[in-house]
Amino acid sequence: MTLHFTNARLINPEAGTDEIGSLTIDNGVIVAVDADAPAGSTELDCGGHCLAPGIVDIGVKIGEPGERHKESFRSAGLAASAGGITTMVVRPDTTPAIDTPETLEFVTRRAAEARVRILHMAALTKARAGHEMVEIGFMLDAGAVAFTDVFKVSTDTKALSRAFTYARSLGALVIGHPQEPGLSAGAAATSGKFASLRGLPGVSAMAERIGLDRDLGLVEMTGIRYHVDQITTARSLPALERAKANGFDVTAGVSIHHLTLNEIDVGDYRTFFKFTPPLRSEEDRMAMVQAVAEGLIDMIGSFHTPADEESKRLPFEEAASGAVGLETLLPAALRLYHAGQLDLPTLFAALALNPAKRLGLPQGRLAVGAPADLVLFDPYAPYLLDRFKLHSKSKNTPFDGCRMEGKVLATYVAGQAVYQG
Q1: Burial, 1: exposed, middle or buried (Cβ in 10 Å; 0-12, 13-18, 19+)?
Q2: Does pLDDT of 336 surpass 90?
Q3: Which of 222, 336, 346, 396 has the greatest number of beta carbons closer than 10 A?
Q4: To the nearest 5 percent, what fractions of the chain are helix, strand and coil?
Q5: Residue limits of the Dihydroorotase catalytic domain (predicted)?
Q6: What is the average pLDDT score of the chain?
């Protein structure tokens, strides 16, 4: 079926434009922009609402295998489609880890339950233990798009250099988590006045800088394609800027929670605000927003991490880290738009275009020939978020009860409506 979207506010991150226009899709592909409706097409009046490329979210945690009670591919797919996410790139920190071709093939079959596109990352080292590299070539053949040990940071730098060198020979993308594991062990907050007043074990912001410097040294030594999963402190930005200026193949991301929340939001030990890495100071948060606006930080992700009530209803130090974010990623990101800090093309460059480009995907664009993965949304629709209405199995969101602005009206994958609000 040929669909012709009219009266749409087209958010084009590639061109950097935000203009009223029309879009035509046929057989799952964009075939025309700002053209007349083809004969026999179905016209959809967007009512002046925003039509943008579907979000490509790198770093989503799914509970299969091992923790299906927290999140399944099916429930994550429902949440993603309701949040305007058309491609999820899922993490290997499962039980067991995705560190063999057989495990990767299992989750690939299970992912067929989802109504959005799902790509898989694999562990970089066996059991994510940081010592013995996985069979990177076989994992690439089985469909892995990147390699990461997620939040388990290796202390075996020699083993890591071998893995980087081998990944470089195969052109594999490695995703690292910049933390010095000794300094960050046991930490529940960022060290400083707030952590001291609350009696929480803290970690210095320098732990991220030290971990990043180590990884960037290995990048310089091996020439690998490297992505930093989360930059969260201002101290890390100069090192990232130097790496890019030196021509290293490095990109960086940031979590939506570190862009919109700070350490004070933890309040009286609210565990829904416990993250890895912990929330930072307001000065760090503003520095991250500025880095996204300038393009120094390339991507924004939800870092969706489902946790059940039992693992969150604990003392702050003992509670699980992370939050669900598939349905809150877009409305939370729109806070930056409403605050005048990011325009919509810049926002969708970080949410869709840059992640797609880094993975070599054709998504993330409003261009002729691109897949018709789209999100139609009203950026001004206000509502109070009720966590129990989220599609995720787990309900651990820091935005529960918050006033949000921005609702997804429809999500399309390959031209098919997978969600209609």
Answers
A1: exposed
A2: yes
A3: 396
A4: 35, 25, 40
A5: 49-234
A6: 97
Q: Output DSSP code: residue 40.
A: T
> In this structure, what DSSP letter does residue 323 have?
B
Residue that is written with structure tokens 């995703």 in the block: 175
Give the DSSP per-residue string, 62-79. Answer: --TTT-TTT--HHHHHHH
Read off the pTM. 0.97
Select from 3.40.50.10190, 3.30.70.1150, 3.20.20.140, 3.90.1300.10 the CATH code of 54-358.
Answer: 3.20.20.140
pLDDT at 180 over 90: yes
CB 40 within 8 A of CB 379: no
- Provide the pLDDT for residue 113: 87
Considering only CA atoms, which of 352, 334, 274 is closest in space to residue 88? 352
Residue 184 pLDDT > 90: yes
Name the residue ranges covered by the structural domains of the chain.
54-358
